[in-house]
Write a structure and sequence with these properties.
The protein starts with a helix and ends with a strand. It has an 18-stranded antiparallel β-barrel. It has a two-stranded antiparallel ribbon with strand order 4-5. It is built from two helices and 21 strands. It is 6% helix and 54% strand. The chain is globular and about 85 Å long. It binds calcium ion. The site of calcium ion has 3 residues, from loops.
Length: 432
């Protein structure tokens, strides 16, 4: 009996030590969100759509020692009532749980760490690369990222696999060769200047190694492009600003074309200046101006942050102004944004009179809304949000957006092209 007690005590000590050991090795946190939305006059055809989505992210950090971290983030991304992502055993179904992030990060030295696996990439204001955190799925990349950091700057080098594929077309002259899409970059951020919280420089490369046959029979890669960018941001005595300029170049090929085409008219800028009232009442007002050429590829932005919450447009052949206001009132935050959208290039397509060469583009930045007419005015959007913190871990947002068509949108042949499209949504978020 005494022996048993001794064994029991020893076991308890070992277990307790094991538990405290384990506790110091891993941390968990996460968030859960429910969103329901209704769009009236969706796609300008007078229909009403309503959608619910549910997301739960569970952040698990394992740290076997000071140098190595392993991060795993399973994510439930569920569009309410759908079965597309469900695992089903009739008549029951469970939504699939996906791995949103899974990576290791190892510090070889205080100044250098290497991350490998699946991770979100977040740079600057997410104008060019962002994780689309608001979305039920969001975006993460697979690959390697090295970061070298010192007191006043850091520099990232990354290479990510956007698409893994091999040419399997029978009879293809390139049968069996890699047709991957790779995205790589160098991102440098300097933080050691007064009144400038960061000055960023970046150089990005994307290669789409799929091949298409040109009219002469030569094979050419679908895309080989680079993007060079500069970003500045800072604030002083209540005034804040940010500026980002990106310019792209390279070549693209389409099947049957006589030759590869140079990427041109492919720059964008986005500038915002804001003012926050002094004192306890932290209301902020800002004015933003932006423009993107008809050849610009928006790459991987959190587009939702920028061109209106109704998510109607991508950053291509578009310019405009935005008025921003954010007013905190006790536990409420009231947001108001007013956007105007215009086409940059309205050049008539000489081969089809009455149409233009480039339309305005949908959220993905590549699908055109249409090319009828040569009007510049796309329309305007008003976004109103009311956020409320119910407690330290629970908050809600009520949002209302209304888009009014300009001459360009009215002419694209939509049944209700001249009627406002409205979006109403309620979001509830909890953190743990
Ligand atoms: Ca490959």
């Amino acid at each position: 009996m005494r022996k048993l007690l001794r064994v029991g005590t020893a076991l308890a000590v070992v277990l307790a030590a094991g538990l405290s050991y384990a506790e110091s090795q891993w941390k968990q946190s996460g968030s859960m969100r429910y969103r329901t939305e209704q769009v009236d006059n969706a796609d300008f055809v007078s229909k009403r759509t309503d959608t619910q989505n549910i997301q739960l992210k569970w952040d698990l950090t394992f740290q076997p020692n000071d140098m190595t971290t392993i991060f795993f983030q399973p994510k439930l991304s569920l569009v309410g009532g759908t079965t597309a992502t469900h695992t089903t055993i009739a008549p029951f179904s469970d939504p699939a749980l996906s791995a949103h992030q899974a990576y290791f990060n190892h510090k070889f030295a205080d100044s250098f760490a290497l991350l490998g696996g699946r991770s979100e990439l977040v740079y600057g204001d997410q104008l060019v690369i962002g994780p689309v955190g608001w979305h039920v799925m969001g975006r993460s990349f697979d690959g390697l990222k090295g970061r070298y950091s010192m007191d006043n700057f850091w520099i990232d080098l990354f290479t990510m696999k956007v698409e893994e594929s091999v040419d399997t077309t029978a009879g293809s002259p390139t049968l069996g060769h890699s047709t991957d899409i790779d995205f790589s970059g160098i991102y440098f951020s300097y933080t050691g200047l007064p009144f400038v919280s960061a000055i960023d420089l970046y150089y990005l490369m994307r290669a789409d190694r799929q091949e298409v046959a040109l009219s002469g029979g030569d094979m050419a890669n679908v895309e080989s492009m680079t993007a060079t960018g500069l970003r500045l941001t800072g604030d002083t005595s209540g005034i804040d600003y940010r500026l980002e300029y990106t310019t792209e170049s390279g070549k693209r090929a389409t099947a049957g074309a006589a030759a590869t085409a140079d990427i041109e008219k492919a720059s964008q800028y986005d500038v915002e200046v804001g003012y926050t009232l002094p004192g306890d009442f932290k209301a902020r007002f800002a004015l933003e101006a932006f423009s993107a050429g008809e050849g610009y590829d928006q790459l991987y932005p959190t587009a939702h942050k920028w061109l209106g919450y109704a998510d109607l447009f991508g950053r291509r052949n578009i310019s405009g102004f935005v008025l921003h206001a954010k007013v905190p009132v006790s536990d409420f935050t009231i947001g108001f944004d007013y956007h105007t959208f215009n086409r940059v290039n309205v050049e008539e397509d000489a081969s089809v009179p009455g149409t233009s060469k480039y339309g305005a583009y949908k959220l993905n930045g590549s699908t055109s809304w249409g090319t009828t007419g040569t009007d510049a005015a796309i329309g305007s959007e008003m976004d109103l949000t009311v956020g409320y913190k119910f407690g330290p871990a629970f908050s809600g947002t009520l949002g209302y957006s209304s888009f009014t068509s300009g001459e360009y949108m009215k002419k694209q042949g939509f049944l209700k092209g001249d009627t406002a499209l409205t979006l109403l949504y309620v979001e509830m978020s909890a953190k743990f």
